[in-house]
Amino acid sequence: MTDPAHSGMLRRIRRVADLSQRELAARIGVSKSAVAAAESGRSGLDVRVLGRAAELAGLRLALVDAGGREVPGMDPEAVRDRAGRYYPAHLDTRYGDEEWWYSHQGHGHDREQPWYTFDRARWVRDWHRARDGTPDDHQLPQPGDSPKARAHARRDTHWRAVAEERQRRFLAGEFAHVDPGLTCSCPPECDEVDDGSGPARHATVCACGCDLG
Fold first, then answer.
1. What are phi and psi of 6, to 5 degrees?
2. Res 71 pLDDT > 80
3. Distance between CA atoms of 76 and 86, rounded to whole angstroms?
4. pTM (2 decimals)?
């Protein structure tokens, strides 16, 4: 079975590079018969070999979509797992502390929480893509991506929102009847039980409950 497109590409490369079949074969490390067979459409060349041939002519191979627009490869700087491996290209990566209840079903909670993960179940992937769209690529690592750093950030955001809300209520006169000397006296344990992801929570030893009024 012949491949006119492949044949035409290789002939174009030779014409631009001004190389004979024998010269091109020597430069890219294949036999002359392999080049001749590829040009006639009887067989093809490995894409890496074809890429080397294109470079000789100052050209490069590219992916194009149905509209002829070039499509870039996936970003080499995208997140990887703890073994340094890329995540499966067809799946969508997310932070390891997102939807923790689902990603650890059946796996126990004694494992170290991963920084990044993905959903294997197609229905979960399809649901996310229907809601949020399909990401162009896997996410890029950013400072503060660790589960611990993200938990701290959520707590900081939560307490900042609490302070802003109390300030708003104070300026609105809602605390006019309250002792003006009242201040937050939450113990450090409150920061451990409240990550800011839901309604305010306080440790059992907390006698303050300053943001529950």
1. -60, -45
2. yes
3. 9
4. 0.59
